[in-house]
Amino acid sequence: MSRISAHNARLDALAGLVQETGVLRLRDAASRLGVSEITIRRDIAADGERLSCLGGYIIPVQDGTVSSDYVLEQEKDSHATAKARACRQAAVMIEPYDTVFIDCGTTMPHLARQIPANAHVTVICYSLNVAEELASRNDVRLIMLGGVYHPEAASFSGDEGIEVLKRININKAFLSAGGVDEQHGVTCSHFHEVPIKQMVMQRSMQKHLVVDSSKFSKVRAARYASIGDFNSIVSDQPLPFVK
């Protein structure tokens, strides 16, 4: 096989893997294809159309651009009423002694505030804004996933958190998203969140997507799930493309 043919074959394989997972670790891609990480980076840089390498992850390019423009402080007050309405609906699902996961983002503190009093639940989270809402509650056992802190999202990431999740059974997971699109699925702006979200979905008996309607038909850089992967989609408005 010529060098150009091998290059194109690797790009096709990478594109297929990223389409399946939404985001792919660079080291995992190198291992799967039997080449070095430097070779993978060179292939992606030479192509420049389908994929992008950010940090240690490979993500898809949407319409020629890679979007990672979400900053928590800028989004905090955006659509607050709609977010609170969606979270009130989601909180009804929480039952006494549940073990629940609450995702990061500006929607989820509304859910944390809505957890019923004396519920005696265990809450797993990886974002400071959710932890701050629950840290003083005596009826909530809080498990905070640590790792590397990302100030733009007020959340943590790392292998340590993934290993903790592997040892926990979750009754209900409440996940957030920056975009929900019929074709491109459920996406977020920060690729460091994807491994945590996907592990949570593996460990959860019920998976609920909690978003306000401004996220409908939006697509962000990092895909982490399909719409059909969730037991329910909880929002202030019905999702227009799900019957």
TrEMBL record:
Domain HTH deoR-type: 7-67
Keyword hit for Ion transport: no
Gene Ontology MF term list: DNA binding; DNA-binding transcription factor activity
PROSITE patterns documented for this protein: HTH_DEOR_1, HTH_DEOR_2
Keyword Repeat annotated: no
Residue runs in coiled coils: none
Keyword line: DNA-binding, Transcription, Transcription regulation
Family matches, as Pfam families: DeoRC, HTH_DeoR
PANTHER family per the UniProt record, alphabetical: DEOXYRIBOSE OPERON REPRESSOR, HTH-TYPE TRANSCRIPTIONAL REGULATOR SRLR-RELATED
Protein name: Transcriptional regulator, DeoR family
